[in-house]
Amino acid sequence: MRWKTAALLTLAVLAVGCSSNDKKEPGPAELVKFDAEIELKREWSRSIGKGQGETYNLLKPVVYGNEIFAADVRGLVVAMDRQSGKVNWKKNLDVQVSGAVGAGYGLVLVGTLRGEVLALDVSNGEERWRSQVSSEVLAAPAVNGDVVVVQTQDDRVIALDIDNGEQRWSYESSPAVLTLRGTGAPLLTNELAIAGLSSGKVVALDTRRGLPVWEQRVAIPQGRSELERVVDIDGGLLLSGGVLYVATYQGRAAALDLNSGRILWQRDASTSSGVALGYGSVYVSQADGSVVGIDERSTTVLWSNDALARRELSGPSVFSSYVAVGDKEGYLHLLSQVDGRFVARTRIDSAGLRVRPVVEGDWLYTYGNDGKLVALTIRQRD
């Protein structure tokens, strides 16, 4: 298995930072009390094997049709009815899963620590094919009906034939000297495969041949040490109405034109968990634990909630009129999209919530580090 020659750092290490003295680093901020405005109702809960495992995996579930699919670190893949939680099938792949889960066009897709991509039949979990790639796959594969595209830890973007897993093309870039442990999931349209790289660049490739259509630098490494120069794009990309939204660690949040890569707007930000979009605003869970709402017309910060400092937040998701984020102690927080105030909170998994919540219509699914998958809906308080 090919690895980057540089050190691989987890977000937790970077969040603590380096210190030349023995001062104790402050712990996570104490949770502030508030009057809940809504109630989060638990519709069902399932245990998915060993969950995320002890390494910094982000095994995000995926909704496909009327089912939700989740995987644990040891290779257990479970298909459930997304509204009842009823298990439709289970499959134990006996592999170390590190990138999960992608789904589409009749396939459920996972990536492994050994650099394999496995395609399962969506109806019963039977293996359709598996393919070896250059290094571990740390994010969900993407599929568009013709190819399956993965981004590997060594900053390659690889396209596999949807029918048999044979490699169609591979795009290589020069990885950064020092990087977070992780990659964002590639974004796939019929014509373009788009990936955020450890160098702070976004690249759009022709899905047929893997040739670059455009490349745009979102963040420029700055600082004297390699640690200060880390500008990974790890949180994935968001596409809406021909606009591509992206954010980097120690860099910027930006909006790009999908067809040309031209930067439409940008402002300083630092996150490894990506962005969410709603009500004309972009929401960012920053590395310091603050959550901000950015008006995309003026690029000004509409609000900032700093009460979750050092709580190692998950990526944000827009849920109804709210922004949902998880934290390292397993709490799910709902903030108002209007002003960032807390409106609800519930504890899901005491081992923590690293994975961004999954939203489908009026349902929210959150997957804890120890493997608890919980389906939630909103109930207005009397």
TrEMBL record:
GO cellular component, one term: cell outer membrane
InterPro entries: BamB, PQQ_b-propeller_rpt, PQQ_rpt_dom, Quinoprotein_ADH-like_sf, WD40/YVTN_repeat-like_dom_sf
Record key words, sorted: Cell outer membrane, Lipoprotein, Membrane, Palmitate, Signal
UniProt xrefs under SUPFAM superfamilies: Quinoprotein alcohol dehydrogenase-like
Residue ranges occupied by any Pyrrolo-quinoline quinone repeat domain in the UniProt entry: 74-305
Record's subcellular location: Cell outer membrane
Cleaved signal peptide residues: none
Topology of the protein relative to the lipid bilayer: Lipid-anchor
Biological process per Gene Ontology, one example term: protein insertion into membrane
Pfam families per the UniProt record, alphabetical: PQQ_2 (PF13360)
Organism superkingdom: Bacteria
Broad class of the protein's primary localization: membrane
Keyword Ribosomal protein carried by entry: no
Role summary: Part of the outer membrane protein assembly complex, which is involved in assembly and insertion of beta-barrel proteins into the outer membrane.
The protein's assembly and partners: Part of the Bam complex.
Family: Belongs to the BamB family.
Protein name, entry field: Outer membrane protein assembly factor BamB
Annotated source species: Pseudomonas saudiphocaensis
Gene that encodes it: bamB
